[in-house]
Amino acid sequence: MFRSGLAKNLPSRPLNLLPLRHLHVSKASSAKALPPRLKIDEASLEENFLKGSGPGGQKINKTSSAVQLKHSPTGIVVKSQATRSRSQNRKYARQLLAEKLEEMEMGDQSRTAIKAAIKSKKKASASKKKRRKYRALEAEKETNKQAEVELDEKLDQATTIREENTSNVPLPRDSRDH
Amino acid sequence: MPRLPTSLIRKAYSYSPLLPLLLKATRDLALAKNELRWLQEHISSIHRLRKCTPKQYLPKPPTLSQLCRIRSTGEPLQYILGSQPFGDLEILCRKGILIPRPETEVYTTRLSNLLLRHGSIGNGNVESLQILDLCAGTGCIGLSLYAALHRQIPDVRVRAIDFNPQARNLAWKTVKLNQHLGRLSPSLSKSQFDYVLADLLNNEEIAAVVQSDATFNIVVSNPPYISIPAFSRDTSRSARIFEPSNALVPPDSVGITGERTGDLFYDHILRLSWRARPQIVCMEVADLEQALRVMRAVKDMEAIDGSLWEAKQIWRDEIDVQGNECSTEWNADVNAAIIGEGSGRAVVLARSWGVDVIKHDTAAFG
Questions:
Q1: Residue A16: is its pLDDT beyond 70?
Q2: DSSP E strand boundaries for A30-175
C-alpha cells in the first residue's frame, strides 16, 4: 500500500533517520476550496529585527530572534518569536500579517473566518454524533434493564413454584447421613 | 542585578514548575516560556532519532528538568541545544567557540541582500567573489554569505581565518550538517570554503596564509572587541562565564589602557585590507564610540598612505535588512554616514563597485 503509487516517486530518504510512515498524499476532501492567500507587497512592509533590544553584540548572548513587521498603509504591527530561527519567524510574521489584513478586508469571507466556520461546523456535527450515540446507548441500556427486571420476575415466579413442588418431597437418604 | 519579584516567580511556577529555573537565566517570562518550549522540542527530537537507532549505541537522553537545571546556571541555551540558526543556516555551537549573535546576523543579511541587489541590477562585474572572513570562529558570516550568494554569483570563494583548530573542525561539521539539511550546496568543498589556521595578530602567520599578491573583494570580520573595563562592566554573566574570553576581549597589549584595549584587532584588519584591496570591508564593533574610533584610525591611515575608501558607513543595530532607505545622519568629522537606529554595530568601508553596492542609503549625500 505504502510502497505503491506515489510513494515510488518520493526521493530516497535516509532510512536510518526517518521512521516509516504512512504518508497521506491525497488532497484533503474539503467541500469548497479556500480563497487564495493574500499576497502582501514587500515594499509596503517595514521589517525590524532588534527593535528596542538595547545593547548587545558580543557582550550579551541573546536567544530571542523576534521579528517585527509593520504594514505601513494600515499601521498594523505583528511580532513573531515562535522559533529560534529568524528566517522562520519572518515567514510566520508575514503569514500572521496576511491573515490579519484579510480578516480586516474581507470579514466573513476571509480564509481564517472560513476555516473557523468549517471547524465549528465539524465540532457541532461531532457533538451531535456523540449525543446521538450516547442516546442510543442509553436507550439500549434501558431496554436491557427492563428485560432483566422481567427476567428476574419470571425467575422469581419459577423458583416459588419449584419450592412449592419440592417442599413435599423427602430428602434422599444418603444426604441425610452426612 | 535586581532581584526577581516573588510574584513573577509564582506566576512562572504556576505555568510550569520548571519555568522558575529558566527565569533565573532569562529574567523574562515570555522568553523563559519560549526557551522551555525549545528545550522540549530538543528532547522530543532526540527521542525521535533514538527510535530509528539501536539503543545500545546511544547514551541515555537527558530529561527536561536536567536541561532546565543546567540552563539555570547561566549556561547558554545554544551550547545546550548544540546549535544556533543564523540566516538560513544552522550553525553548530560548542563550548570554547563564540555563539553567533543576532546583531551579526542582521548586518550580514543586509550585506548579502545589498550584494544580491547589486548583482541583479546588472553592473556586470560581479561574477566571482572572493570573501575573506577574519576571526571566523564558527564561520557563520562567511558561510551564510556563501549560502546567500552562490546561487546568483557563480564563483563565490570564502577564505576563513581563525587561530582556533576546534573552531575549524566545528565549521566543517556545520558545513556537513547544512549540506545534509539541503541548505548548503553539496558541491561546497575546500576550494570554495577554505578555513585556515592563523593568528591575525601574528604577522608571519598571516603572511603565510594570505599571500602578498592575494586580492579579495570583501573582507568581513567579527574580531574580539570588548575592552578590559567593559568586560567586567557590560557583559552578561552567561557570556562572561561560559563563552571563551579570547573571542570577546583582545589580548593585553603594552601601552594600551582603558576603552582602547578593545581596538587592537582593527589596526591589523585595516592593514591587511590595505594590501588585499577589497571593494568592501565590514567589521563588527561594540558601539558607536568604537565605530568612530575605528573611523578615525582609517582617517589617520589615509593621511599617511593616501585615500583608499570612497564611501564610509556606520551601521547601527536597527537597520533595514533589505537595504531599503532608513534614517541616516552624516558625521563630518570622520566623513561617514551613520545609518539606522540603536547601538553602532558595523563599520563599512567601500571603494570601486563596492560604493554602488552600499550607496542606496547615502544617495542624499552623493
A1: no
A2: 45-48, 67-71, 76-80
pLDDT value of residue B19: 96
Is residue B265 domain-shared with residue B125, that is, in the same domain?
Answer: yes
| Per-residue pLDDT, B181 | 93
Q: Which domain holds residue B137?
A: 102-365
Contacts of A85 in chain B (CB under 8 A): 85
For residue A147, the surrounding DSSP H or E stretch is: helix A111-166
My answer on whether A145 and A83 are in the same domain is no
Domain-located, residue A1: no
**Which of B:14-53 have CB within 8 Å of A?**
26, 30-31, 34-35, 38, 48-49, 51-53
Q: Report phi then psi at A78, rounded to 5.
A: -125, 150
Q: Are residues A103 and A35 in the same domain?
A: yes
Inside any domain, residue A22: no
- Residue among B38, B85, B103 whose CB faces A57 most closely: B103
Q: Can you give the pLDDT at residue B173?
A: 96
Q: Residue B324: is its pLDDT beyond 90? A: no
Which residue's C-alpha cell is 437418604?
A173
- Spell out which residues of chain B touch residue A58, defining contact as CB-CB under 8 Å: 98, 101, 222, 224-226, 235, 239, 247-248, 284, 286
| A171 domain-assigned | no
A30 touching B (Cβ < 8 Å):
no
Query: Which of the listed residues B73, B93, B120 is the one where a domain comes to its end?
Result: B73
State how many domains chain A has: 2
**Quick one: average pLDDT of B206-230?**
92
Query: For residues B84 and B87, what is the distance between their CA atoms, to the nearest angstrom?
Result: 10
Same domain (yes/no): B36, B109: no
Residues B107-150 have pLDDT tens digits of 999 999 999 888 765 555 567 899 999 999 999 999 999 999 98
Residue in A18, A59, A85 nearest the CB of B234:
A59
Same domain, A129 and A79: no
Annotate B189-214 with DSSP letters as a single string: -TTTEEEEE--TT-HHHHHHHS-TT-
Burial (CB count within 10 angstroms: exposed 0-12, middle 13-18, buried 19+), residue B261: buried
Span B260-299, pLDDT tens digits: 999 999 999 999 998 888 999 999 999 999 999 999 999 9
Question: Of the ranges A171-175, B57-61, B112-116, which is most confident?
Answer: B112-116
Q: Which residue has the cell 542624499?
A: B364
Number of domains comprising chain B? 2
CB contact under 8 Å between A57 and B84, yes or no, is no
List the grid coordinates of B123. Answer: 553592473
Same domain, A101 and A133: no
CA distance B183 to chain A (A): 13
Kindly state whether A72 is in contact with chain B, defined as any CB-CB distance less than 8 angstroms. Answer: no
Same domain, A101 and A138: no
- Residue A140 belongs to what domain range? 124-164
Is B79 within the bounds of a domain? Answer: no
Q: What is the pLDDT of residues A21-66, one digit of tens each?
A: 666 666 665 556 777 777 788 788 887 776 656 668 899 888 878 8
On whether both B23 and B126 belong to a single domain, the answer is no
